Automatic annotation (TrEMBL):
Record-listed heme binding positions: C108
PANTHER family noted in UniProt: CYTOCHROME P450 (PTHR46300:SF5), P450, PUTATIVE (EUROFUNG)-RELATED-RELATED (PTHR46300)
InterPro entries assigned to the protein according to its UniProt record, in alphabetical order: Cyt_P450, Cyt_P450_E_grp-I, Cyt_P450_sf, Cytochrome_P450_fung
Native source organism of the sequence: Armillaria luteobubalina
Involved pathway(s): Secondary metabolite biosynthesis
Keywords: Heme, Iron, Metal-binding, Monooxygenase, Oxidoreductase
Cofactors required: heme
GO MF terms, alphabetically ordered: heme binding; iron ion binding; monooxygenase activity; oxidoreductase activity, acting on paired donors, with incorporation or reduction of molecular oxygen
SUPFAM superfamilies, per database record: Cytochrome P450 (SSF48264)
Name of the protein this chain belongs to: Cytochrome P450
Protein family: Belongs to the cytochrome P450 family.
Length: 159
């Protein structure tokens, strides 16, 4: 994923200046990485929405992780596949995982800020860093945990 994103950046962005928002349309793979990060492991697996109808409070709790990991929409959902968000070879790209921000009037008002700031962070990191697995003091590669905590907010489970 990182090598493909770096190749896209090298081909479409000048090496003398960092990526900026003007480069956004030229970098579909970076956008696909962002979409897959949102879909693959949403930070908040359950949304919250409170609505009032005829003086009754109705609490809606959509299970975001179930929507974004539905096998009909996203085949093999536990595998990180950014390329599924890129159209090509006569196939339609997967829908953007906007469900992570909520729905209707209960949508997160800062979702555009999050999308743009995360996109520029990913583009900047890909342009300036080469990320690899950590090593211990003896030079052995440390494997990362792919287990996440349950509950309202998710994070990597530290062993």
């Amino acid at each position: 994923v990182q090598a493909k994103a770096q190749a896209e950046l090298d081909a479409k962005v000048s090496a003398t200046c960092p990526p900026n928002f003007d480069n956004h349309p030229q970098l579909p793979y970076i956008e696909a990485i962002l979409s897959e990060v949102l879909r693959w492991n949403p930070v908040m697996p359950m949304g919250i929405c409170l609505e009032v109808h005829y003086l009754f409070f109705i609490q809606v709790l959509p299970i975001i992780v179930a929507i974004l990991q539905d096998e009909e929409d996203y085949p093999n959902p536990i595998v990180f596949k950014a390329k599924q968000f890129i159209p090509g070879d006569g196939k339609e790209p997967q829908p953007h995982p906007l469900a992570v921000f909520g729905f209707g009037r209960c949508i997160c008002p800062g979702h555009y800020l999050m999308l743009n700031s995360t996109w520029i962070a990913i583009a900047s990191m890909v342009a300036t860093l080469s990320i690899s697995k950590a090593m211990d003091s003896e030079g052995s590669i440390l494997e990362l945990s792919d287990t996440f905590t349950g509950g309202f907010l998710r994070s990597v489970l530290l062993c």
